Each structure stands twice: as C-alpha cells, then as structure tokens.
Input
Amino acid sequence: MGHQRLWSLTTARTGFLFFLLLFSAAPGLCQQTFVVEGQVLTDRGMPPATTANLHLETQEGQVVADQPADSRGRFRFINLSRQAYHLTVTAEGFQTLQQWVDLRRGESRFLITVTITSLEKAKSKGAMVSITDLSAPRKARKEYEKGQRAFQKENLPEARRHLENAVAEYPCYARAQTNLGMTLELLGENAPAESAFRKAVECDAGFHEAHVQLGIFLNHQKRFAESAADLRKVIGHFPGSWQLSYQLAAAEYGLGQYPQAAQEYLRAQSMSSEIPAEIHIRLADVYTQQGAYADAYAELQAYLRAEPQGRFAAKATDVIQRMEKTGVLKRSRPPDVASTPHKD
Output
C-alpha cells in the first residue's frame, strides 16, 4: 500500500502565467468540500476490460460512494469532507485493491491512479517478501495479520494495537514496522511513525516498501533534504523502482533542484506504464522553473494527447494558448542539465 501526494504547481518567473493559479482551485471555492478524481488501470497500464467498482467509506465505516468506473476506468467523488477515506476497488479477474485516500492535507482536488493486478499475474509473481517475514515467529505473524485486517477496515486504534504487539514480539519484523509507521502517520503521531519506518529499513535494507514509505513520509513533512539523501543511498539497489525515483524527484523539487527533479521524473517515466499522465504536468512545471518554456509547452501537449478529457486538460489548453500569445516560447532556453549525475 502507498500514499500519493500531489505537489503544488508553481513558477518562479515574474510576468509569466503562474501555474499555481492555473492548476489550483480558485480562492474561495470548494473551501469545505473536496473532489477526488482518478482512473483505474491494470498492471499493463490499460483500463480493465471488465467494469471496475469503487467503494468509498469513512474511517467509521460509513459508506460515502459505491459506483462503477466508466469504460476508460475513470471515476470521480465529489462533496467529500476533510478526512481520511478507505477505497476498495474490485474487478472480475483482478485482485481486490484497498488503499487510503487521505484528504486531511493538501488542496481541494486530488488526482489518483489506482493500479489493479490480474489474479493470474498475482499468483505467478507472489507478494514482495521481506527476509524478516521468514523469521518472524508465528505469534508475531498472527498479530500482524490482525493488524492488517483492522487497517483495511479503517480501525486504526485496533490496527495499531495488533501491529505494536507484532513488533513487541519480534522487533525486526520489517513488514509490521512499515505498516505500523503508516498507521501511526495516519493517526498524526509522526515521531513514532518515523521510528517505525527507520526500524524497518534497519532490519531489512532490501525491503522495497519500507524505503518508499519512508520517502513519502519525509516528503509529507517537507524534510526534502533528508528524503533525498536517504533515497539516493538506496535507489541503485532497486533499479526498476519508479516509486523511488518519483519520490526522489518530489524531494529534489522541494529543494529547488529542478534539473535533478526533471532527471528523476524522466527516469521514473521510463520505468513503468503505471506512471499517471499527470507526470507531464509536473515536468512542465519543472521546465517552467528553469525558463525552458518550449519543453514545458511540449509536456503540456503530451498531457493533452494522453488525457484529452483529463482533470488538467482545460487548464493545460489555457496555458498553451497563453504561451503562444505572449511569445514566451521565443524566450525559452534549453533546460539545465544536472551538473552531478546521481550515483546509482
């Protein structure tokens, strides 16, 4: 399981149309309610051939929405309040997917991409294993399973109790520590959440999910320098992980290291079809920060080709038209190249 966070789109060029104003909700609008939009894709990057059904509940178990995605896998939830929700996605022939949608921070509109895995592929591939899964005592595994079930039911206090029991029984249970960290973060207990994530990494440096969740956590806390430092140390050990490159790009952006951010976004994009089309918007923002308006223009066009009816389509079209009218493309320069490539 993992979080996704949308980074505000900004620009540092005075006199140019600010991306923040274009891609954020207008002031005074949707102050009390939130909108979640997205798309359900298969692990091959395509909408499922069968209908995907989405079930959204509050932490207390109150059903908020129960609806199918459209033929392109798209969905939209409106009039949501500022709280965490639990999303369950089902489709015939695919594993049931469950994840948190946390609206307690961020802007009034959220964009998510939900990737579901075919049952056939899931059976052949199996779950990603931590070496500590194999050595965890039976009692610890039982507590972890109870905690995971409680987490999926959005009963965070119960999830915490069982996961803490699991790590008390076996402190180096990396999977349990990772899920405990996610639970504690949702409960707003950031210091113990970080301790759990770091304990998971310490116990099993090869457990991919622990590194991803630690990066997400640090980025949420705007501790971009720490996030980038941690991610650079491990990213070479997971050469196929677009998630790590994506989080590193977010950290680099937060640090104002735009060439490095572009490098990592492009690397993530090259690794997997799971990357949402929104990455073109993020790259457009990065290029704008560097004054590379022609490249930003190209990314906006790429977004419109990928999602002509997408969430950012109208705004992207507006920006393109304004760029053409203002002549900013004539003042464009090539994007900067990172002076020191990251060592994998």
In short: The longest helix spans residues 138-152. Residues 1-31, 123-127, 339-344 have pLDDT under 50 and may be disordered.
